[in-house]
Amino acid sequence: MELRSPQTVNRVGQASGLQHRFQRSRPAGSRPQPARLPYAALLSLIATGAFGSEVIRIEARHDHLWKSCSGVLRLTDGGVQFEGPKHSFVWAYGAIQQLRLAEDDIQLTTYRDRLTRAGADEVYRFSFLKPQEAPWREIYARLQPALSGRLIAAVPITGGDEPVWQSPAKLLGRWKGSIGTVIAYPDRLVFRTGLEGQSYTWRDAGIDNISLSDPLRLSLVANRKEYVFQLQQPMSEEQFRNLWLRLNRAKGLEVIETYQKGK
Ligand SMILES: [Zn+2]
User: Is the pTM of this model over 0.90?
Assistant: First the structure.
């Protein structure tokens, strides 16, 4: 939820991406560029593709505190842009603290204002105007390499390769859980459910920890959040051990395996 007026968001948002851009391209010895540019300058930057070439274009609604505006969300090779009727934003991938991708929206958190607002992060929400046409698989493929651990994929990336293990499961929630399937693929874990925004895909390298407290209770920590699954089919100790070793390998912790082999 945004805690400020749209005007403030607009000003800060414009400054963040551009400042980053100009500081990088400034020749040595020259004076720092102002953080804020006239709107016309921003538009011409976008029009000439100065922020990288357009890769994916999505019609989206930007939610304000009270109202919203509609515009075009672009994912380029440089970052994320939104161009609306009254304001535009540009964020380099490096300026994004966290991005949550669901089937019908993107929620973007920036690093901006963390110092000045005592921990209050800037959150922007863009809902896809035509969710049925939103290419979230392409969006995932574009954002995953650019953001890696900073991407929360609330989408099920299934298919393409064979699952190594799966079970119907309930993802426990604070109020009520969601019913779906936990699927282990060779390089990721997926929770797939028919409920929008409640599926997840976790790359091996993005999983901080997994544990099996009993054969029907699997929990996983990623992006500083714990996800607990009540499994319908038990996971054997061996299956869990294989998964655990694999996740640690993805983190580069080869010492564990070496130690076990040498025993
Ligand atoms: Zn707007």
Answer: no
